[in-house]
Design goal:
The chain is α/β, with parallel strands linked by helices. It has one domain. It has 17 helices and 8 strands. Bound molecules: iron/sulfur cluster.
Length: 409
């Protein structure tokens, strides 16, 4: 009897929207070291806070469902135990909290008692729950929803880069996945009169007027532990490309891709909009406010600013001590971004992410052939990313650009 030979192994690569695609776009080489090399970042604050705030908001929602605690929640009694739980879960995965300057830690007092010293991250968490959680939780239908789908890896003829076309593909398809933080369910007739700030923002942007195909809608919600990204009108039009390096566009494409993935699930309803909450805006750090100030001065913002807030920012001497008392509407408006779900835009987002996957696949295959990481992955982080990067001491781009500082006298 003739035994059939084992067929060649065929793996379909799987890519996460945030963990792979957006991470690759931040810097190709950093992504390679961090994600494919299994070297977790030591503790960059933004990475840690991003994970932490997702965990805290999800746990806070679960507890609100069980206990129905009224808002505002007390930090020490209601919120601190949630922070501790999420921190412990993250430490098990090797993600340790940042410098005590930022995150609450305990100090010993007499009779071996310990008291917590509340820092900026905990104050920000408190605001996130008491300002937005209060309005988000009653609308939640499901949280932490895993979505995935197969897509074709585009051929080089569709790709902007024609080089390296002698490298074979390892698969014709890839699997794209993501976890939607929150799916909210809205009944357009019953919710319209409720006292909910999110509904107010949706109405203000005309979403209720334009939605009449169905009574039931969904909203996709994503939390981001960062400030609102720069908005540049030149790179946010239909012609915008991955190479524009715009977080503003990347976040929009993330939501549009989520909406495409979600719409293919059996139990989904029409999606009214996507909402991103930029939670640092509720309590910006001095560094955040310096960048916000620069965005306003250089007209890299999509929002109008009141005379009152503009004056405060202009008069600010950029010190931590004289941090301006900005208005609540300034912080609220900057912390919420509503994204229209449009078929043409979805198509564009999917095409852009297909191109990213093609690039990652090519770099992977190139590295396999050449055995050289640095020749296969582009070092293309921006200044802020490079300054916080764990791999800068052996990154040629960084050492070349900072050779004066690194030269031993
Ligand atoms: S130092 Fe900058 S360019 Fe180099 S790997 Fe890190 S982020 Fe990328």
């Amino acid at each position: 009897m003739k035994l059939s030979s084992k067929s060649k192994e065929y793996n379909i690569p799987e890519y996460s929207l945030t963990g792979d695609l957006l991470s690759f776009l931040t810097c190709n080489l950093q992504y390679r070291y961090q994600n494919k090399g299994l070297l977790p970042p030591s503790r960059p604050l933004q990475h840690w806070f991003g994970e932490f705030i997702h965990g805290v908001m999800d746990e806070a929602y679960k507890q609100w469902k069980i206990k129905e605690t009224h808002f505002p929640w007390d930090w020490m009694g209601d919120i601190r135990p949630i922070e501790e739980k999420i921190d412990q879960q993250m430490q098990i995965r090797g993600l340790y909290p940042p410098n005590p300057k930022y995150f609450t830690h305990y100090i010993d007092i007499e009779n071996s008692k310990k008291i917590p010293l509340k820092r900026i991250i905990s104050s920000r968490v408190e605001k996130s729950i008491n300002i937005w959680g209060k309005h988000i939780f009653p609308l939640i239908d499901s949280s932490e929803v895993l979505i995935k789908r197969l897509r074709e890896i585009p051929s080089d003829s569709n790709n902007e880069e024609q080089s390296d076309n002698n490298i074979e593909k390892r698969s014709d398809f890839y699997c794209v996945n993501g976890i939607i933080d929150v799916i909210s369910s809205l009944n357009i007739s019953s919710e319209i009169s409720t006292n909910n700030l999110i509904i107010d923002y949706l109405k203000k942007e005309g979403f209720y007027k334009s939605q009449r195909k169905s009574e039931e809608y969904e909203i996709i919600i994503d939390y981001k532990g960062m400030k609102r990204p720069k908005y540049d009108s030149r790179t946010t039009n239909q012609q915008s490309k991955i190479s524009d390096k715009s977080d503003w566009n990347y976040h929009k494409w993330q939501i549009l891709t989520y909406s495409w993935l979600r719409s293919r699930q059996a139990n989904s309803k029409p999606i009214m909009a996507g909402i991103i909450f930029y939670l640092n805006e509720l309590l910006p750090s001095t560094k955040d406010l310096l960048v916000i100030k620069e965005d306003i001065e250089t007209n890299k913002t999509d929002l109008k600013i009141s005379k009152f807030d503009k004056q405060l920012i202009e008069d600010w001497d950029e010190s931590e001590e004289n941090f301006p008392k900005l208005s609540n509407s300034f912080k609220l408006d900057r912390s919420i971004r509503i994204i229209k779900i449009d078929d043409d835009e979805i198509k564009k987002a999917l095409t852009e992410f297909d191109i990213v996957v093609n690039k990652i696949e090519k770099s992977t295959l190139k590295e396999n052939k050449s055995n050289s990481i640095k020749n296969s992955w582009k070092a293309d982080g921006d200044k802020r990313t490079c300054d916080a990067c764990d791999f800068k001491s052996f990154c040629n781009k960084y050492t070349d650009q900072n050779s004066n500082c690194l030269t031993i006298p």
